[in-house]
Design goal:
There is one protein chain. The chain is an alpha/beta fold and 394 residues long. 46% of the residues lie in helices and 14% in strands. The chain contains 17 helices and 13 strands. The chain has a five-stranded mixed sheet. Strands 8-9-7-10 form a four-stranded mixed sheet. It has a two-stranded antiparallel ribbon with strand order 1-2. Helix 5 links the parallel strand 3 and strand 4. It is globular and about 70 Å long.
Length: 394
């Protein structure tokens, strides 16, 4: 395509009109060949000047028409000092159910900071549910820009689906763990069954409510807490299997996620004990519900990772904002918000500030102490693995 063809239609029209005006300005507008030649040479500079004027006007017209420019100019005022107002951007956050209270406080702080620093409006679409269900939704087409899930195994599934690039654990601090908690046992008022440890959940007269490990990341942590309560205190795997079987035998119903498990226990009145996150109990207390619960002193660190969904942010053009949001979640400001709603902070400074808020754990183990998620998934949660065998009475 020639330079002439690349000019906007308005610019080409303007140039033609200028040239025609010059030609018409010649007396009688009747030029012979020699006259035209003389006009051509004598007026070359004039034509060139007029042409450049036309091109300049054409460029101006193009700029005003917004040809290919994604930004608009904001009205000049004291707030933006004439700075350019960037196009609004929308980020989709997909997370597991019990993080909602924290994100509801953190997101407005990030939006305010981003607007101040970048003069751009950011809005968030948010989706919350069971971690396993959320993972499948993202793989099946829910176009998350950022995923904050209950366990790294779920994030790895999204990676294996080709949506997240390998190495995401190194893209954020603390191996991408942005929030954490421990397991809690919630009891009925007055704790009539005298439940204080994981072992008490095996009593024949105790009914336990926990979500389904097939759909809930929280429930997988619960399962691993049962197992590790034995193997991390001197017991072997045979004893751990027997213990876990006894606990699950006392589970009358398995909701799909931690939030529904809470509803079954409190709203429907089922069960004597509810296995949930410590942060949920702290948040409930802050909201005026003084629920009785215990934190077993042998416990698992419930580590929740954060990751940018590479394929989607590149498709949406949201990578810069999404990565900035992930980074913001590690700031003391954001970590304090996690702590306020009961999560144990990963920032050392904030951890020190709020240490009196959380009971000390005598024996705290991680999923890596149990062999890591690949081993754990294959051994316990794959189809036909330990959990399925227990459910089948094997």
């Amino acid at each position: 395509m020639s330079k002439w063809q690349r000019l906007p239609q308005e610019g080409r029209y303007l140039i033609v009109q200028i040239i025609n005006s010059v030609v018409k300005a010649v007396p009688g507008n009747k030029l012979g060949g020699q006259q035209r030649s003389q006009l051509n040479y004598s007026s070359r500079r004039g034509f060139l000047s007029l042409f450049l004027v036309g091109v300049s006007l054409s460029v101006a017209i193009s700029a005003c028409s917004g040809g290919g420019n994604n930004s608009t100019t904001a009205p000049s005022n004291s707030a933006n000092s004439g700075a350019s107002q960037k196009k609004d951007v929308e980020v989709t956050l997909v997370s597991f159910a019990v993080t909602k209270a924290a994100h509801d406080e953190i997101i407005p702080k990030f939006v305010e900071q981003w607007k101040k620093e970048h003069n751009q409006n950011v809005t968030f679409k948010q989706s919350y549910g069971g971690s396993g269900s959320q993972t499948r939704a993202v793989i099946d087409g829910l176009e998350a820009d950022v995923v904050h899930l209950a366990l790294a195994l779920d994030t790895k599934k999204i990676e294996k689906a080709g949506l997240i690039q390998p190495g995401w654990e190194q893209e954020a601090p603390n191996e991408a763990i942005v929030s954490k908690s421990v397991g809690a046992i919630v009891t009925r008022e007055g704790n009539p069954k005298n439940i204080t440890t994981w072992a008490d959940l095996t009593k024949p007269d105790v009914k336990v409510i926990t979500a389904n490990p097939k759909t809930s990341g929280g429930a997988r942590w619960n399962f691993l807490a049962f197992w590790g309560a034995v193997t991390k205190t001197g017991g072997d795997e045979a004893k751990a299997l027997d213990f876990t079987k006894k606990v699950l035998k006392n589970v009358p119903v398995m909701p799909k996620d931690a939030r529904e498990a809470t509803d079954v226990f409190f709203k429907q009145g089922q069960g004597d004990a509810l296995i949930n996150y410590e942060n949920e109990m702290i948040l409930a207390k802050q909201q005026g519900e003084n629920l009785p619960y215990v934190i077993p002193d042998v416990n698992i660190s419930i580590d929740n990772p954060i990751a940018v969904v590479d394929k989607n942010v590149d498709k949406h053009g949201t990578r810069e904002v999404a990565e900035a949001f992930v980074k913001f979640l590690y700031t003391p400001e954001a970590q304090r918000e996690f702590a306020k709603v009961g999560f144990r902070p990963v920032d050392p400074t904030v951890e020190k500030e709020v240490e009196s808020q959380f009971p000390k754990i005598k024996t705290l183990f991680t999923v890596n102490d149990l062999g890591g998620w690949d081993k754990v998934q294959k051994e316990f949660f794959d189809d036909g693995a330990v959990f399925d065998k227990i459910q089948a009475g094997k």
